[in-house]
Design brief:
single chain; 35% helix; 6-stranded antiparallel beta sheet; 37 strands; alpha/beta; 1125 residues
Length: 1125
């Protein structure tokens, strides 16, 4: 193959060196009009590269070359080569149309006849009208290829996922505004993990002024205001645009000016029509509040940023047709927002942050800017990850781009790029590809995105001269780089069984088991482990899928039997029409959940179905692990079964290696007596006061005896926030919260001061780390059973081994080397009210002094059926062992207990407030759980009992979690709320949010609340607030379902009763349904809605993400729930 410039071979039917204006060169039949042929003569004489990249231009991207060789491909093509500067407009249109058709049909795999016919259509249209119209497929592919060709963008690896929102029918300013709002709504639907482009009508060929215009450079921007003292409030980069809309459109008059005011959108449907200015409704823009647990004060700065970067000042050219208005979105890279906050020409926050960090800002050599920017960068990443919205860190971004760029050069043969734009502004030299990419050449290929004239030119055309304010301002224009994330793990080892293990975990339990599985398999297999929450569709992920011999997926289950939010993106990826990485791939799925839910391990079953439909080969049925009993045993059995099934996949040699590793693990697990016992050293108070050791004590708890706390006010650790209780209020008249086994429901108000101003939305979740409430007598009796009678004796725990037993003994690992007491461990650190697992029953059997106790414990430890039956009867907890098995008294030493007992675990609740209304607070609605087991023993819910007995001033440990249970982006959408009992919790936040919107003058849609309670007279929660919400219009209609009145009515009954009203809302394509309460109730409600609106309507709402469930299990075994609303 010759590589000399312009000398390359093509198929005979399209010889690029044939100078004659033949129709064959254009792929057009011989009977096309002579006029069209004449117009195409110059195009026919131009050589065509077999790589189909078309003409290579030097504008608007001007051949930025890092090297001596400007050739863009192996065929010697150069920027600007062979361009005809005297080419007429119609000739240029025809040539570029034909070049795009060649590219399009080549990449679509069209037949020659199809391509020829389409070219004939285009030639005829151009001859008749001077232009032509793209099909949807042509326009979408053209937009995608333009992104692929964008030299300054490092997120191009997902170019083929860009989705077209075709709005070429829009001809008015109002229509453009509505289309852009719909774009924002679509972009935010899946937490900004999808890319969209909205394309409006094109300009007439040769007259770009005739096309529609979006004046904004991004659809969402923050305003900037110059104060009388010369200071600027807001985003300095947008000062000019703010002055323009203020002067020309009288925008902002009478409004309060803040640092983060949304600029209006300005549209002009065509140059003959006057432009119009539109305010963006708040609910169409989701903002991320910036906070970081490491720097609580950072949240108090009030920084925030919008979730969707939507570029709107670039024009799209496809096949000679220019689309002058084509806003598109991607997702953020961390450094983009960091620079928005840090640059002197923007918010200039670094000096303020550095001073709050205690850094010396007077010396550059102190590197205060570096430290402050790193803290800001971590906060931005933490905030977006907390919220669940798409963002990628710059190291993963560059690593992913480097691999994609290399693949493009190898497979496509060319790839344009601008090194100065691609390389990130932070730690650039530490990024992969920093040196390898510096020989990139920048040039222009079409289809192409290019900057439009901009609002300043539009202003001059429409209003004559620029305003004085606009002339004085200096606009800092940042090129938006849309980036995607690639997470890179260790390369698989070729000589071992290759396993790709992915897990989706909410509370951390599934993550722990995934870690155990990877650890035990690592001796006989090469295991790659990935958190599903970190999934991005990258070359690295697909490569791991392709190379692994077996794919293992471990997942918890959320709500009413669906995969957790952490796995949404992966489920969506696997559910695509084409997922070649799964085709023929052997896989196995293991689920973790609770059999108290109707759809036990439903998340695992959903993924199993999705993977199977995508072509995966199931090696065994879905495994299930029940937290109510036998979880560990089920996990171990599933692990061995998976190994046995791998015989047919890897061959005997690989199987033997893995089997031996599992056998060794089993050998390591079973002989508990071989494990080294921890050493307990009692500490005197004098010695404790002199030790510089970190105490193992939750910050919400009181200090150790004889030890002074290092801080005097609530402090926030990296993992847990610590808030102060403001109020615990009973919600039902006549109920007393302090009664030990009394029924109670209360509202708990938590002060967020000192917690870094963490963001949350109505419908999000809060996890509470509870106190195991034990009387002093209970603690002393238990300690006596451990032969360690002083519950307040401070001691130190040390392990005489270098081995890491974190997976098996998390509590012991947690307290090792830190002073503590039996009281602190049983009250705060240990899961004292957690069930005793099967393995521990076997170990305790060896400690029992009586034959009867030993037999029972051995039976529980060896027979899963016996264990479950005993568990349903007694719900055996760790605090019960000496009461249920008296012969254990004095025979279970404290070191052994510390090796067996699990760590305390958090309980999850729905947040019951709106941050917009309850500023600086978060509220929780708690129903106290009280129940009686079959053995007549009365029990209390651990966390609900703890919460109901808190007093103002007490401190509490918590975390906030983003949930998929939010109000619609469009606040005009009608909503139906269905909840019973404490299921009203998230709905309180909903009506509070709507009350705030009403006060701000926002239009809101209808809201019907159907609430189930025993009786309005005795059990109606938030009665006064509900009346107020109805009176102001936050709730349009309140319907009560009273189960203890005559006639007895449940929520599903009321759904049927209100069927006529509900059907009218359900038929509305904007309507959202929210269900909160027990899982059994949720199933009945769904069936009732089916009967009202039809199954197809409800299914469509599920598919569109308009049907939301936040449910919790009601234990058939009367066990304390880990998730309570």
């Amino acid at each position: 193959m010759g590589l000399t410039e312009s000398k390359f071979s093509l198929p005979a039917e399209s010889d690029p060196l044939d100078d004659s204006p033949t129709s064959a060169a254009l792929g057009v039949s011989s009977d096309s009009s002579s006029t069209a042929k004449t117009k195409a003569s110059d195009d026919a004489s131009r050589p065509r590269c077999p790589l189909f990249h078309g003409t290579v231009y030097t504008s608007p991207y001007p051949g930025y070359v890092h090297g001596k060789h400007p050739e863009i491909c192996a065929y010697g093509c150069k920027p600007g080569q062979g361009l005809n500067l005297d080419e007429a407009m119609e000739e240029k249109l025809l040539r570029e149309a034909m070049e795009f058709q060649d590219l399009f049909h080549n990449e679509m795999g069209s037949t020659p006849d199809v391509k020829s016919h389409r070219k004939e259509e285009i030639l005829a249209s151009i001859e008749k009208t001077g232009t032509y119209t793209h099909s949807f497929e042509e326009l979408q592919h053209g937009a995608r290829v333009a992104w692929r060709n964008a030299p300054k963008c490092s997120n191009r690896k997902v170019w083929n996922e860009l989705q077209l929102l075709d709005r070429r029918d829009v001809t008015t300013n109002e229509g453009m505004f509505e289309a852009c709002l719909e774009h924002l709504k679509m972009a935010q639907k899946n937490m900004v993990t999808d890319t969209f482009i909205t394309v409006f009508p094109p300009a007439k060929p040769g007259d770009r002024k005739s096309g529609p215009r979006v004046w904004n450079d991004q659809l969402i921007r923050y305003a900037a205001y110059r104060q009388e003292d010369g200071m600027i409030v807001g985003d300095r980069g947008n000062l000019g645009f703010t002055d323009m809309v203020t002067t020309r459109f009288r925008w902002g008059a009478g409004k309060e000016k803040t640092m983060f005011d949304f600029l209006p959108m300005v549209f002009q449907a065509n140059s003959e029509e006057p432009p119009q200015c539109f305010d963006i409704p708040e609910t169409y823009v989701l903002e991320i509040e910036i906070f970081d647990p490491e720097y609580p004060w950072l949240g108090d700065l009030g920084l925030k940023w919008y979730a969707v970067p939507a570029v709107s000042n670039m024009q799209l050219e496809v096949g000679g047709i220019v689309y002058t208005a084509a806003p598109f979105n991607g997702w953020y890279a961390d450094t983009e927002i960091v620079r928005d906050f840090a640059d002197e020409g923007r918010y200039n926050m670094l000096p303020r942050i550095a001073k709050l960090m205690g850094l010396d800002v007077n010396r550059n050599s102190a590197l205060w800017k570096d430290e402050a920017m790193l803290a800001l960068n971590k906060a931005v990443l933490n905030s977006f990850q907390h919220s669940g919205f798409g963002m990628v860190d710059h190291h993963s971004l560059m690593s992913g781009f480097f691999d994609w760029y290399s693949k493009e050069k190898r497979d496509r043969g060319f790839c344009t790029g601008n090194w100065k734009w691609i390389i990130p502004p932070l730690t650039a030299s530490a990024c992969r590809g920093y040196l390898h990419l510096n020989k990139m050449t920048e040039y222009t290929l079409k289809p192409v995105y290019f900057n439009g004239p901009g609002w300043r030119k539009y202003e001059k055309e429409c209003f004559g001269v620029l305003s004085r304010e606009a002339i004085r301002s200096k606009m800092v224009v940042l090129g938006l780089t849309m980036k995607a994330c690639g997470l890179f793990l260790h390369n698989v080892r070729k000589n071992r069984i290759r396993v790709f293990l992915v897990y989706a975990s909410v509370s951390g339990n599934t993550r722990n088991y995934a870690s155990i599985l990877a650890s035990l398999m690592n001796d006989g297999a090469s295991v790659e482990v990935m958190d599903a929450e970190a999934f991005q569709d990258t070359a690295e992920f697909n490569e791991k899928m392709e190379k692994c011999q077996i794919f293992l997926f471990l997942t918890s289950t959320y709500g009413n039997g669906v995969p957790p939010r952490q796995a949404f993106a992966l489920e969506k990826h696997f559910s695509r029409k084409e997922c070649p990485a799964l085709e023929g791939k052997h896989y196995a799925v293991l689920g973790f959940g609770s059999s108290r839910y109707p759809r036990f391990c439903g998340g695992a079953r959903t993924f199993d179905e999705v993977i199977s439909k995508a072509g995966g080969v199931r090696v065994m049925d879905v495994g299930t692990c029940d937290e109510l009993g036998g979880e560990k045993a089920s996990f171990h059995q599933w692990s061995f079964d998976v190994a046995e099934r791998m015989v047919s996949i890897t061959g005997k040699q690989g199987y033997v290696r893995l089997k031996n590793a599992l056998a060794n693990y089993k050998e390591h697990q079973e002989p508990f007596h071989r494990l080294p016992m921890p050493k307990i050293t009692n500490l005197s108070r004098d010695k404790l006061a002199s030790m510089a050791l970190q105490q193992i004590l939750p910050e919400a708890a009181p200090p150790l005896p004889g030890r002074v706390m290092a801080h005097s006010k609530p402090k926030m650790s990296k993992k847990w926030m610590v808030g102060t209780i403001l109020e615990v209020r009973s919600l039902i008249s006549g109920q007393h919260l302090g009664v030990k086994f009394g029924r109670a429901t209360c509202l708990v108000r938590i002060n967020l001061d000192g917690c870094g101003n963490p963001p949350y939305l109505p419908g999000d979740h809060i996890s509470i780390m509870p106190e195991n409430r034990c009387s002093d007598a209970e603690l002393k009796a238990y300690a006596a059973g451990l032969d360690f009678p002083d519950v307040d004796q401070v001691f130190l725990v040390e392990m005489d081994t270098e081995k890491n037993f974190e997976d098996r003994m998390p509590l012991l690992t947690q307290i090792q080397g830190k002073p503590t007491t039996v009281r602190i461990i049983l009250t705060w650190i240990a899961g004292a009210r957690e069930p005793v697992d099967q393995e521990s029953c076997s170990i305790l059997a060896q400690c029992a002094a009586s034959e009867e106790d030993a037999e029972v414990l051995e039976s529980l430890g060896s027979d899963q059926g016996d264990y479950k039956a005993y568990f349903e009867k007694t719900a055996l907890q760790w605090m019960d062992i000496f009461r249920k098995f008296p012969s254990l008294h004095g025979n279970v030493p404290l070191p052994m207990l510390l090796m067996l007992i699990p760590s305390n675990s958090p309980r999850y609740y729905s947040i019951s407030s709106s941050k917009r209304k309850e500023k600086g607070e978060v509220h929780v609605t708690v129903g106290k759980v009280v129940y009686t087991m079959k053995d007549k023993v009365r029990r209390r819910g651990v966390c609900s009992d703890h919460m109901c007995n808190l007093d103002p001033g007490n401190r509490i440990q918590f975390q906030l979690h983003t949930a998929a249970f939010h109000l619609p982006v469009d606040n005009r959408a009608p909503i139906i709320l269905l909840g019973a009992g404490t299921g009203i919790a998230p709905f309180r936040g909903f009506w509070q949010e709507r009350e705030v919107l009403i006060k701000r003058g926002q239009s809101i849609g209808e809201c019907i609340l159907i609430f189930g309670c025993r009786s309005k007279k005795t059990d109606l929660l938030f009665a006064e607030e509900l009346d107020e919400a109805v009176s102001v219009g936050a709730i349009t209609k309140l319907v009560l379902a009273e189960s203890r009145e005559v006639p007895k009515r449940y929520i599903q009954d009321k759904v049927i009763d209100e069927g006529g009203v509900l059907k009218g809302l359900l038929d509305n394509q904007l309507c959202h349904v929210y269900v909160c309460g027990a899982a059994e109730m949720a199933g009945s409600v769904s069936a009732a809605l089916d009967s009202v609106a039809g199954r197809s309507v409800v299914d469509e709402m599920f598919a569109d993400g308009r049907y939301h469930e936040d449910v919790f299990g009601l234990p058939s075994t009367k066990l304390d729930e880990k998730t309570e609303s």
